[in-house]
């Protein structure tokens, strides 16, 4: 007997690694539901949750290291051949999104373990289901499967949003659910229109099939692609579909809002997959349908969002508008539809997610020390830890506004460079720089009011307790990861450049997923049916 | 004659889907939570039939190979099953959420307050 048990396990691990980011949180969640959420089980739930997310981070890093070699990992679920079965595909972009999800989830979970998870039921199980949906959306290679994972993460997010309860959360919860259900309906219409005209929903199969569709079919395909742009625009909070976001994120509890920072990025990711790859430059008659829309809307989103930043009256709402602003810059980068623009967008997206998540947590820590003034941006009683929180806030603000040498600066610089030489260059430069400046202004206004205009007479009896090191560790870790992105800017930009190049290389993608290139395995419908038989 | 039959069936289904969608959109834009939930449900029905119809309309064509001269496409039928299950679950959830929101805020208005009432807090 040559193969030991350990060898077999290692081989299985290597073989099934691509599905583990989906499987691990779902199994963890089921285990947690079995344990139940009685108060005495809570320490155990916290340990299990942290271990599961840490393990997930290790899987994601392993996948990212593997993807960095340029190899595509294709996992056929149930070993059904593509395009008939569902495939999971891990390329550089997917692996990067997995790492980002887990890297945000770990500190957020740690923070939630400081007390938020006791203010509602089944927080940890829902958190895991949310991760399952996020990871699934990032690895799937099938458009309908993407819809299913969207629903998984949305259903978890519906309940997570009202975690902690209260009138305001139920109000925005209902609105959030309604807009997302409407978006899901549009998603299904778009997906079925694509199926009806291309005859497949496998992303690789679509990549080789869409360019072949011409005439009326191409017109409907374009309409379907634009419908999907609306759907993903709702998730990503692209103007004019962003209206739900500020109220929702501001009402959510701090750890939930911090985790939601990644949810807008699912929309961005889907736009990249569908509109920059399937309906990209090589898509024949339906090439670049999102082209005329994405760049102007991205820039307009950024401009509108900084107005929100300047006018916000509470800190969580300010951070929520910052989320919208960052999405605007990212989508403007994607909207350039060039490898350089995509690479810049990816780098900036990772950084902005980390900073926004950290800011949501910091906002709550600050509000807790301000007595009745709470999270409103107005003079309040002196803080317990003004220097520490002030420094963290300064770091986060400088990152968000894009001051050198922080990664926000590098990301924006990459976007500016990527736009050089194209017709819309003056617009991109003007808007990105204005957005950066106004963000800085808005954050400086908020910071000076929060930290420098004290009203000691408002302080109640006894100074408020400072935030514990345990709670502070989470935003520090997120900001630290952000700063690390500056230190490692060289390797990271090489990675995002390679990821963008990989996305542009449709032939290798099709070959890796379908085996042989150019084989059309199923037949798209033709109207009228060739023989006319079987028609009603 | 057969041409006329073709047109009328597809026209009928398309019109039906359009009508149900229009009703769903109208109800979804109402200001009370119950019509909104009904509107979302109607929209879900319309979308389900839409997915089904995207496999084209066939008669006497089983979705199984070898059972007849022509086969209907089984894939939209599988997709619509998934969509029905998800739609059913979310409808159940949104009804519960609307009820809780009604209990918390004392009104079934989607803004959580009656028109004309002052909002709590600021912007």
What's a quick, concise take on this entry?
Chain A is an all-alpha fold.
What labels describe this entry?
heterodimer; A: 536 residues; mainly alpha; two-stranded antiparallel sheet; globular; disordered C terminus; B: 123 residues
Description:
The complex is a heterodimer of chains A (536) and B (123). With 536 residues, chain A is mainly α. Chain A has 21 helices and 2 strands. Chain A has one domain. A two-stranded antiparallel ribbon of chain A has the order 1-2. The longest helix of chain B has 32 residues, at 74-105. Chain B has one domain (2-56, 72-105). Chain B has 123 residues and is mainly α. Helices cover 65% and strands 0% of the residues of chain B. The interface between A and B is large, with 40 and 48 residues.
Number of helices of chain B: 3
Number of strands of chain A: 2
Strand order of the largest sheet of chain A: 1-2
Q: Order of helices and strands of chain A, N to C?
A: HHHEEHHHHHHHHHHHHHHHHHH
Give the ordered list of helices and strands of chain B.
HHH
Q: If interface size is counted as residues with C-beta under 8 Å from the partner's C-beta, which chains form the largest one? A: A-B, 40 and 48 residues
Q: Segments of chain B where pLDDT lies below 50 for 5+ residues?
A: none
Mean pLDDT of chain B: 85
Distance between the termini of chain A: 62 Å
Class per helix and strand makeup of chain B = mainly alpha
Give the low-pLDDT segments of chain A.
526-536
> Quick one: biggest sheet of chain B?
none
* Average predicted confidence as pLDDT of chain A: 87
Percentage of β-strand residues of chain A: under 5%
Quaternary state of this entry equals heterodimer
Which class of secondary structure composition applies to the elements of chain A? mainly alpha
